[in-house]
Amino acid sequence: MTSRAFVLGITADLAFAAGALLSSIRAHDPGCDATVVILHDGLGPDQQEAFQRLWPGCRLRAFDAEAAVARLGAASPQVSGFVQHYSPLVLAKLDLPDFLAEFDKVVWLDADILVRGRLDAIWDFDCLAWRTLPAGAFKRRATALAVFDDLTLDPKVPLLNGGVIGVSRRFLQLGGSSALLQCFAARLAADAPNAQIDELPWYLVAASLGLPVTVLRMALNHPVGAKGADAAVVVHAIGAHKFWNCTPLLQLFPDWSRHHETWVEQGGRPYAGPVLLADVHPLEPHEVLRAAQARAHWLGVFKKLRPVLPKGMVVDLQHDRKHLRIFLHGRPETEHLCLHRHANEKRIGLEVVLPPDLQARVVEAVCGAVKWARHEKGALISVPVTHIGAALAAIDTALDAPVRP
């Protein structure tokens, strides 16, 4: 039996994330002898078996959400709102010291974590361990901490990000306990709306008892959006954008997808939800290059266009496509102008996407008013790049003109 354990808490729909996380640990440390304990809210037998195949000896325990919420005050609207927004399983962190009856040290890992190296250093602590929050964290939590003005808090104890928390038996020897964590969480829930009742209690226990905290270096719990994440041992996808649902992260951290595949190979269910930001950052490398090239081209066009753009026209923010739309004030999005790259770099294609009668009027106006403008076919006009301002002005005038009977 090992003397240390990783503890995770997941809802059933996040089994794939925990599976990929454990696979990433195995990939970098196949001989890791830590026990894995997964607290869950109803994993099916097939998914529990997949975890057992992925990490032999893995322990799966149903989390008693009702009891956890009741300990904080079931009638409290703050508790109710907090657990509805997240999940009662976020409160599982408060039960971490209970595992010290069996293990010398336990480390909590959030499921939105990717491991990219050996975790030996994560166990190098005496009592508590976590990554500290950046400057200004105390000020942002001043209202919540004011609830505890009856306590003397050790100024040397840092606030924490709770994605990775280490705790050892020394925590118990120095007076810490799950009961004390839950007591502080209950006070926060009652008196500090919107407080982090799953993380602040750790700080409050450590600071009120003067417990030693080993500060984990950034590389052992690195925010995915902070500089240097690509070189970190533990990358933490804090926020709505995760390794599985966000195209930039899927591309920047392709190893997460490989670990996810390992989970699926063991019988785990894959992620089947939406993927975000695909319209901003394409997933495929060749599409990323094309989007960047289009963006650079249209930004150059817009630089010339901006001084002559009529007030009633707005350029589309999505400028990473083959075309660039220009929206018209007071008209639906489906009615617009569209710029296209022309084979001749000195010319540009101008497409008029309007109802037929209005389209014909606009095409006629541009070809009649703009020197060297050519009606190519349908709604498409070709104009010199240097005359695009004149073309837009002609369109603006034509749109404002009264309709002929």
Gross morphology is elongated
Using only C-alpha atoms, the radius of gyration works out to 29 Å
Strand content: 15-25%
Secondary structure category: alpha/beta
Query: How many DSSP H or I helices?
Result: 14
Main β-sheet: number of strands, strand sense, barrel status? 7 strands, mixed
Q: SSE order in H/E notation?
A: EHEHEHHEEEHHEHHHEEEHHHEEEEHEEH
Major β-sheet strand ordering = 3-2-1-4-7-6-8
- Low-confidence parts, pLDDT < 50 over ≥5 residues? none
Through-space gap between termini: 91 Å
Helix content: 25-40%
Number of strands: 16
Mean pLDDT: 92
Structure in words:
- With 405 residues, this protein is α/β, with parallel strands linked by helices.
- The protein is built from 14 helices and 16 strands.
- The protein has helices at 15-28, 45-54, 65-73, 77-85, 137-140, 142-146, 169-173, 178-191, 200-209, 247-252, 254-265, 285-305, 356-369, 388-400, and strands spanning 4-10, 35-40, 59-62, 105-109, 113-115, 128-132, 160-168, 213-215, 222-223, 234-236, 313-315, 323-328, 336-341, 347-353, 374-377, 380-384.
- The strands form three sheets. A seven-stranded mixed β-sheet has the order 3-2-1-4-7-6-8. Strands 11-12-13-14-16-15 form a six-stranded antiparallel β-sheet.
- Helix 1 links the parallel strand 1 (4-10) and strand 2.
- Helix 1 (15-28) packs across helix 11 (254-265), helix 8 crosses helix 9 (200-209) and helix 13 packs across helix 14.
- The longest helix is centred in the last third of the chain and has 21 residues, at 285-305.
- The protein is elongated and about 90 Å long.
- The N and C termini lie far apart (91 Å).
- The model has no long low-confidence stretch (mean pLDDT 92).
